[in-house]
């Protein structure tokens, strides 16, 4: 058996799965309808929408299988997401990648597999729409075209979910996406008695960038800042653009010293960007933070309000200092 390797975009792919907040959710008729159609059209016992997570594949929709997940190492879909095309395994007994796979040699005794990768609007292959049989079979070009059409329906559902949760300009979570993801992360911190820190950022003098250099330049600056946040914070932190030039990040399991280090990294990378980019203006931000200790749980709203107030204070101090100097 050959376990599937990770694709090159693995981190971004998993971050997208997190933003969509689709893993471990309830069955959804929009996806179940598609797998029912696939099962009927191809006359197969099993049809799945499988999402490939860190170490498992999890089924958003499953027809003909009682389990909701299997280890990623054993998954056919882990192989299918390595390419844009359909992965076709007409007879698993004759394929060295799968011949001694426990899902082939034991239940559900998979013999035939056809899986079409399903992508997020940002282009990451999140999983597959796949059909399976317990006997070998063919899958002609017409079948393949039909499977691609059905996979496209799955992608449209992803697109609708994505639009509701993601800021189109920067690809970060939007306010709604943030509230929902951060709410879950905060509950996890509270259950495990981990500290958490919320950072509230607002760019300084951003209106001036738009006014002097145009809206397109303003968009460039927002995207550049979003990229820096992505680079300087951990993949497990929840980062969002919640308004015009406002960004927030929830750092989980993070105490003050780590938060300070993250902000130092951000400042130094922003300095480097300003020097490198030479756009005629200096991109700068004010930031406020609010901490939840392991002992005292706080609601997300409270953390947001505290961090916003701290940011505002810093902004006032900075503009007073600039006025005094000038
Ligand atoms: N380019 C661009 N500009 C935007 C977008 N959304 C909001 N803005 C602009 O962002 C600016 C935000 O305004 P403020 O926060 O008051 O401006 P500021 O100059 O940063 O003010 P301070 O925060 O006090 O430093 C406004 O000019 C908005 O028009 C966007 O998606 N793209």
Write up what this structure looks like:
- The protein is an alpha+beta fold.
- It folds into two domains: 10-165, 2-Layer Sandwich (Beta-Lactamase), CATH 3.30.450.40; 175-325, Alpha-Beta Plaits (2-Layer Sandwich), CATH 3.30.70.270.
- Helix content is 46%, strand content 21%.
- The chain has ten helices and ten strands.
- The chain has helices spanning 10-20, 29-42, 77-80, 102-105, 141-165, 175-192, 206-213, 215-232, 256-277, 300-325; strands at 46-52, 56-63, 69-71, 87-89, 112-119, 125-133, 196-203, 238-243, 246-252, 285-292.
- The strands form two sheets. The protein has a six-stranded antiparallel beta sheet with strand order 3-2-1-6-5-4. A four-stranded antiparallel beta sheet has the order 8-9-7-10, sandwiched between helices.
- Helix 8 packs across helix 9.
- The protein is elongated.
- The model has no long low-confidence stretch (mean pLDDT 94).
- The structure holds guanosine-5'-triphosphate.
- The site of guanosine-5'-triphosphate (GTP) has 16 residues, from strand 7, helix 7 and helix 8.
- InterPro entries: GAF (IPR003018), GAF-like_dom_sf (IPR029016), GGDEF_dom (IPR000160), Nucleotide_cyclase (IPR029787), Rev_trsase/Diguanyl_cyclase (IPR043128).
- It comes from Roseateles depolymerans.
- This is Diguanylate cyclase.
- One of its GO terms (molecular function) is catalytic activity.
């Amino acid at each position: 058996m050959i376990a599937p390797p990770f694709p090159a975009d693995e981190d971004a792919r998993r971050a997208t799965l997190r933003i969509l907040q689709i893993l471990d959710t309830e069955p959804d008729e929009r996806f179940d309808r598609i797998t029912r159609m696939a099962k009927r059209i191809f006359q197969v016992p099993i049809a799945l929408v499988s999402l490939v997570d860190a170490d498992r594949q999890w089924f958003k929709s499953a027809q003909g299988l009682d389990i909701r997940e299997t280890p990623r190492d054993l998954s056919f879909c882990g192989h299918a997401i390595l390419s844009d095309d359909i992965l076709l395994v007409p007879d698993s007994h004759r394929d060295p990648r799968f011949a001694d796979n426990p899902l082939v040699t034991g239940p559900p005794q998979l013999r035939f597999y056809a899986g079409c990768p399903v992508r997020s609007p940002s282009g990451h292959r999140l999983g597959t729409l796949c059909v399976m049989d317990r006997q070998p079979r063919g899958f002609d070009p017409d079948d393949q075209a039909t499977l691609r059409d059905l996979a496209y329906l799955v992608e449209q559902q992803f697109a609708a979910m994505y639009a509701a949760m993601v800021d189109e300009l920067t690809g970060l979570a939007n306010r709604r996406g943030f509230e929902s993801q951060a709410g879950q992360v905060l509950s996890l911190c509270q259950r495990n008695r981990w500290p958490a820190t919320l950072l509230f950022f607002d760019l300084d003098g951003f209106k001036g960038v738009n006014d002097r250099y145009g809206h397109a330049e303003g968009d460039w600056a927002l995207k550049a800042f979003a990229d820096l946040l992505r680079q300087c914070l951990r993949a497990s932190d929840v980062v969002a653009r919640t308004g015009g030039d406002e960004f927030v990040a929830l750092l989980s399991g993070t105490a003050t010293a780590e938060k300070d280090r993250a902000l130092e990294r951000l400042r130094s990378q922003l300095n480097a960007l300003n020097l490198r980019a030479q756009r005629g203006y200096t991109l700068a931000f004010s930031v406020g933070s609010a901490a939840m200790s392991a002992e005292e749980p706080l609601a997300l709203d409270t953390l947001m309000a505290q961090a916003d107030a701290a940011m505002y204070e810093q902004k006032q101090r900075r503009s007073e200092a600039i006025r005094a100097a000038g």
